[in-house]
């Protein structure tokens, strides 16, 4: 059957397939979605389907209320979280959720990933934020929808710009990332995992390791994201 959303499904499929290739997911852990704002929809991985069995046409098309627009499979159980992020943050083109090992370990420990070095500062100048454990009234509410607000609340409360940060650890849960495209959101997931791993190792070698100086943070971030820089502005 011809679909109006063929290219959007392909984009989301390619992003999902990169997650096991990059070692960011096992089995059916995690999901990626890509948005088409002109049509008011996003394409997301179906729930519980192993990556080895996934096909582009399996991607489920949903609107920003997380209602199915096209697709015969159940969309990811995290669909409402993706929908909230698309609705609230109009500059993002893709969202990724993984349970990558180091990112998830920091999330379970409810700890921000400290900015120890220039690898981290090439991508963001703050610690990778860890959203506090979900409030009881959020858990009692629409859980996946409120996970979106757990993310948004934390970014707001920290005074961060979502368009510069691109990643968060959800306390007790795991990383979520976003980007101007879904490919960029996948990239941010890989960066999040690698930086989380480096920070963990840094603390093994020196539990008193100092965080990066402000001036060095800015220097490295500017080199990659300043005017005319390769990475460009925004996440
Ligand atoms: O967060 C979780 C589980 O804690 C989910 O993302 C993960 O199991 C994937 O679920 P879906 O297969 O996308 O429904």
UniProtKB/TrEMBL annotation:
Keywords: Carbohydrate metabolism, Isomerase, Metal-binding, Zinc. Its cofactor is Zn(2+). The keyword Transmembrane helix does not apply. One of its GO terms (biological process) is pentose catabolic process. GO terms for molecular function: aldehyde-lyase activity; L-ribulose-phosphate 4-epimerase activity; metal ion binding. It comes from the Bacteria. It catalyses: L-ribulose 5-phosphate = D-xylulose 5-phosphate. Residues 10-200 form the Class II aldolase/adducin N-terminal domain. Its EC number is 5.1.3.4. The keyword Metal-binding applies. GO terms for cellular component: cytosol. Pfam families: Aldolase_II (PF00596). Belongs to the aldolase class II family. AraD/FucA subfamily. NCBIfam families: PRK08193.1. PANTHER family: FUCULOSE PHOSPHATE ALDOLASE (PTHR22789), L-RIBULOSE-5-PHOSPHATE 4-EPIMERASE SGBE (PTHR22789:SF8). This is L-ribulose-5-phosphate 4-epimerase. The lineage of its organism: Bacteria, Pseudomonadati, Bacteroidota, Flavobacteriia, Flavobacteriales.
